[in-house]
Amino acid sequence: MNVNIELYASLMKYLPPGKHRFRREIRVDDGITLNQLIRQYHISDAEAHLVLVNGHFVNCGEPRDQRVLVEGDTVSIWPPVAGG
Amino acid sequence: MSWTRKLLRVDLAKGTCTSEPLNMEWAALYLGQRGLASKYLSEEVDPTCDPLGAENKLIMATGPLTGTMASTGGRYSVITKGPLTGAIACSNSGGFFGAELKFAGWDMIIFEGKSDKPVYLLIQDDHAELRDASHMWGKTAWETDDIIHATHQDPQMRVACIGRTAENGCLYAAVMNDKHRAAGRSGVGTVMASKHIKAVAVRGTQGIGNVDDAGAFMQATNDGKEVLAENAVTGQGLPAYGTQVLMNVINGIGGLPARNMRDVGFEGAENISAEAMAEPRKSDGKPNLTTNGACFGCTIACGRISTVDPTHFSVKDKPQYQGASGGLEYEAAWALGADTGVDDLDALTYVNFLCNEDGMDPISFGATVAAAMELFEDGVITTEHTGGVELTFGNAEAFVAITEQMCQGGAFADDLGLGSKRLTEKYGKPDLSMSVKGQEFPAYDPRGIQGIGLNYATSNRGACHLRGYTIASEVLGIPVKTEMNDTDGKPELVKAFQDATALVDSAGLCIFTTFAWGMDNIAPQIDAACEGDWSVENCLEAGERIWNMERLFNEAAGFTADDDKLPKRLLKEAIKDGPTKGQVNRLGEMLPKYYEIRGWTPDGKVTDETRQRLSL
Known about the structure:
The structure holds two protein chains of two kinds. The radius of gyration of chain A is 12 Å and the shape is globular. By secondary structure, chain A is of the alpha+beta class. The mean pLDDT of chain A is 95. Chain A contains two helices and five strands. Chain B is an alpha+beta fold. Helix content of chain B is 39%, strand content 13%. In chain B, strands 2-1-6-3-4-5 form a six-stranded mixed sheet, with helices on both faces. In chain B, strands 8-7-12-9-10-11 form a six-stranded mixed sheet. A three-stranded antiparallel sheet of chain B has the order 15-16-17, with helices on one face. In chain B, strand 13 (257-258) and strand 14 form a beta hairpin. In chain B, helix 7 runs antiparallel to helix 21, helix 11 (330-338) crosses helix 12 and helix 18 (450-458) crosses helix 20. Chain B starts with 5 loop residues before the first strand and ends with a helix. The mean pLDDT of chain B is 97. Chains A and B meet through strand 4 of A and helix 8, helix 9 and helix 10 of B.
């Protein structure tokens, strides 16, 4: 199945070729969890500070292990950032 | 101590500059900068006065850590009764001016009265005098800075001044210092113009003396710098991407207002984001972002220095704007961009340059233009008002044209200079002003993020994120993540952020340190620098005292609980789509509890008991 992955700020370096700015559509195995996807990209828990699926936060740890992705999901990941 | 223990009082009617001792009893309670200057304002100014009348005063104040080796210790604030709001105004700025004022030996300057002709204040260490500024009146802030430097031939001289928008009566004009840094909000520059003060030029050679415990201070400041360096936000994220990294975050979570907050979520957000600023452009292969920059003593360096594409329509015939200059920062990029529907990064960078050059708050300016755009699209304002400009949402050419009009002055510039509250009232559509107490919102929609709505509603200077940045917790997970749409616990969160911020703003430090520092990192630095007991508990109590003192000023100025409110749009018009679809702000669930934990009456008045507890 296909999902969209968005890696922002310093995480952009982890995106494979073919990205548009900070996003890319990727093919993944059916039933993949959010944490499995994050590990596929070698992103540490500390780097995966803010993680959204379709705009909704998924907290670190168990919620990311339990969150099974489905076709068309958009996963957005930021390292620790702030501003204002 | 790291107070200089003296202030400069400038009587503009008489033309005199007088040194007087700092009130150290007040300093022990209010620390410095925002807190101490607000105490002076409260004691010396009638809160009901006309903000632009001679009876109002304007104070430029440093904190005890300003000019020291503490990281970010370069801040100063401008305190007055604000003309945009009628409430107490305190606008904080970085750059180098604040530290220079301290090096000259002054904790603060109090301007009183009104000069009958344009003047600038020249400070060279102990010497201070008012000089004629007639030849600078009508000049931009950048030209004024250049004239002063050419006159005095001292590249180390630091200048804080106003541009043409302040002279033209724009109610959200800023005080600009070091050309690109601004005491931006609430119209403090307008008050400066009303007193005919064009600039303050300062050169100091005395350094900072008499730190209370020099050894402990070196240890505490070094410990603090280590924490900042090792923290992912202050050590890596902010220097690399600046505040603009938030554009995609806030849009992604369904918290980015667009088109005068008519919508939430902006389809052009990624085009004006930090990531877009770092991309090489087609014309010359260079990115919009040229480099980052730091204020005095700062070890974070979040500032953005950018260039506009030299082939872009806004600057192609204007070589003076093709060099690198300050911006874009997140709040400005939102107000000038998402709120007007313009996603042209170069146009926004140029407009931001103009805001700096002519000294106006880009948040209130962008939000006021956004209100005017909605009035235009509703047919209330026409091209007859705008001088032929088709002021529709998303029209970059129109936005550039209207900004140039704004700087040069004229009939529609006078309209825009009113701010959104007075503008929408004038045209019979007051509900289209996205403001609290007359001041426009910054870049976070309180329908999607509950706590920031309570903070906006209760902010003592009108809608403002920098009075209690609950976004840190509600969105960014700093220090801990709270749920955006929960109201439980938000009154306590808002109060904690507001009180801590009041203290940091009174110390001479930048609020961005608090992405890494807690009060347990800050208090030891203050305690080592200053005489007295500045424990964590005493620092937090001082912050609460300052908050309540500001509230009392506003109460005396005529503000009531009825002013602690949000526009109808944010309470009644649910978000139409995206991850926060269906939400409105539930202020009514939070406000009673907030009043209760503040020790105020159910109608928001500070009780006698609270006054006594806080020595007010």
